[in-house]
Amino acid sequence: EFTGGFEGFYSKAYYDPYYGQSVKQYWTIGYGTCYCAIPEAFPNGLDSTCTQEQALGWLKQEMNVVANTIKNALGDTYSSISQQIFDVMCDIGYNAGTGALIGGNTWNALINGDSDSIKTMLMKWCSANNQSSNGLYKRCIGRVQIALNGDYSARP
User: What is the Rg, in whole angstroms, of the alpha carbon atoms belonging to the chain?
Assistant: First the structure.
């Protein structure tokens, strides 16, 4: 719900304004489903449409891939982190890609559990293509609330 809420539902495909129409891999539909993750969601390119039910299916499909990738990367560490830390990792992995997260400074802060480091590192995910985003800023604040307080109530 947190991820879907911040992604928002779009029944018509669109190009990511931070990357432009020519960057096909970031064409988006539904709840943030990108061409690079599920190309079959774009049978008519940017003229593609979807139902909310299709979009929820894609969100669940992608989130399962993200969750499994993160769980595998955590290995034995998986059993020692909280559900809310795992959830924050999954939201970042869905939004920015697991390759951008796994093994980096945010990853290490979340695993190590230092509140100050967690807050600092989570607030660094507020831009897209080197451009500040108010929506991502709000999402980062929500991630901090989840990670540190187990509070999932943040909305865009």
Answer: 15
Tokens coding 88: 């924050």
Q: Whose structure tokens read 């985003």?
A: 133
C-alpha distances in Å from residue 142, one per residue of 4, 6, 12, 24, 80: 13, 10, 27, 29, 22
pLDDT tens, residue by residue, 20-38: 888 999 999 999 999 999 9
Q: Supply the pTM of this predicted model.
A: 0.93
